[in-house]
Amino acid sequence: GFSRQMVEILARHGVAFSSFDVFSDEQVRQGLKALSGWPTYPQLYVAGELLGGLDIVKELEASGELDTICPKAQKLEDRLKSLINKAPVMLFMKGSKQVAKCGFSKQIIEIMNNTGVDYETFDILEDEEVRQGLKSFSNWPTYPQLYVNGDLVGGLDIVKELKESGELLPVLKGEN
């Protein structure tokens, strides 16, 4: 119950956090109590320092201090924008440059590799939040998705059309 309350408070305030189940490792459970000098769980740490338990977190929430102490989780839209702009040419696909995990991704990788243009990839199979969020953000329902300088170019069909018309290289270089 106390851990659930702590998680609810942190989530309500948009705090970026991870957790460790102290019941999964008795040595950690007992060792952390000794190290922190705090006899109960949950224990909240910020930047490696013990902030306190549930009562302390409730007090910080009531005073408004919790929002100034704890790091905020990055909003999905901000995270997507950051990923899209990670490289001038960014490809969201199933798999990676080295190992495409579907036929469409394999085809687009072959096309991209033949352009000689440097590009980065993001494996959407590794992050369901990005996979679903990017579909909504871009208003493009399928993968792969190719971005140049933060703008959506399109999927495999668009890339094929651009290649056939001779426009792909100028688009990838940001000239179009």
- CATH architecture assignment of the largest domain: 3-Layer(aba) Sandwich
Output mean pLDDT: 93
The Cα radius of gyration reads 23 Å
- Strand arrangement across the biggest beta sheet: 4-3-5-6
Strand content: 5-15%
Return the structural class: alpha+beta
Main β-sheet: number of strands, strand sense, barrel status? 4 strands, mixed
What would you give as the CATH superfamily of the largest domain?
Glutaredoxin
InterPro entries: Glutaredoxin, GRX_PICOT-like, Monothiol_GRX-rel, Thioredoxin-like_sf
GO molecular function, one term: metal ion binding
Keywords: Iron, Iron-sulfur, Metal-binding
Domain Glutaredoxin: 1-50, 89-153
Give an overview of the whole structure.
The chain is of the alpha+beta class and 176 residues long. It has 2 domains: 2-69, Glutaredoxin; 76-173, Glutaredoxin. It has 9 helices and 6 strands, in the order ααββαααβαβαββαα. It has a 4-stranded mixed β-sheet with strand order 4-3-5-6. β5 and β6 form a beta hairpin. α1 packs parallel to α3, α5 (76-84) crosses α7 (128-138) and α6 (103-113) packs parallel to α8 (156-165). The longest helix is centred in the N-terminal third of the chain and has 11 residues, at 2-12. It is elongated, with a radius of gyration of 23 Å. The model has no long low-confidence stretch (mean pLDDT 93). It comes from Gymnorhina tibicen (Australian magpie). It holds the Pfam family Glutaredoxin. This is GLRX3 protein. Residues 1-50, 89-153 form the Glutaredoxin domain. One of its GO terms (biological process) is intracellular iron ion homeostasis.
